[in-house]
Amino acid sequence: MFQFNPVGLLALLAFAMCVSLAVVLFRVGIPGSTARRLSLLLAIEGVTLFSTGYIDLFFGPEIRSLQHYSAWVRFEGIVHTMGDCAMLALYPPFLAAALPTPLTRPFLGKRVRITLMISASVLLLAVFMTPLEVGATTLYVLLVTLFCYALLASAHAWHVSDGAARSRARAFTMAFGFRDICWGFAYGSAIWMIFSQSYAVVDTDASGLPYVVYALGTLVAVPLITYGILRTQLFDIDLRIRWTIKQSTLAAAIVAVIFVLTEAADRFLSAELGSFAGLLAAAIVVFFLVPLQRFAERVAAVAMPNTKNTPEYVAFRKMQVYEAAVMEARLEEGISQKERALLARLRDSLGISEEDAFAIERDLGTVPGDVP
Question: Which of 15, 88, 125, 209 has a beta carbon 3.0–4.6 Å from 50's, enabling a disulfide?
Answer without folding.
Answer: 15
